Amino acid sequence: MKILVIRHGTTDWNDKNLAQGSTDNPLNERGKEQAKRMGKQLCGLGINKLYSSPLLRARQTSQIIAQELENEIPIQYTPALREQDFGIFEGVLRNDEQYQIEKHQYFKRFKNGESFLNVAARVYPFLDELIATSNDQDVILLSCHGGICRMIASYFEDLDNDAFASYFVKNCEVKSFEIKKMQKR
């Protein structure tokens, strides 16, 4: 089984370097073009399952990609892939000093938001279930967000704190994870 993880296309808030979190922003024109190009690149990979965050930017990305794929695949929307809620820091500059301090306190919730542990508590069980209910031939695409891409990587890879903190996926970049299921005896 292969799981492909894509971060949504660019939004105006990405261009302005603002923390989006769970703010429901749409793709801008560049983001739509990125998704269309990526959809063409993903053709022929045999994607047979497609899951998306319910936030607009990820939904638009998955819908544009789905139109480019060779087979019509229904998109399944799941709150497990929704971006972390940054609480009072939604809309602040990503290089804001206090945001950076809060962002690197993994066990602490953002005020009126979520901690990384809250995010892991919804992403990890989703991945457990996805792997348990899929077969070795499945090629699954997950359309989500930068923080969720990081959390998914931490599920599949042994990331230390520094690697986790520096893990970054560009807009409309795809990461791939191969999963070999254990054969039952």
Automatic annotation (TrEMBL):
<dbReference type="Pfam" id="PF00300">
    <property type="entry name" value="His_Phos_1"/>
</dbReference>
<dbReference type="InterPro" id="IPR029033">
    <property type="entry name" value="His_PPase_superfam"/>
</dbReference>
<dbReference type="InterPro" id="IPR051695">
    <property type="entry name" value="Phosphoglycerate_Mutase"/>
</dbReference>
<dbReference type="InterPro" id="IPR013078">
    <property type="entry name" value="His_Pase_superF_clade-1"/>
</dbReference>
<keyword id="KW-0378">Hydrolase</keyword>
<protein>
    <submittedName>
        <fullName>Histidine phosphatase family protein</fullName>
    </submittedName>
</protein>
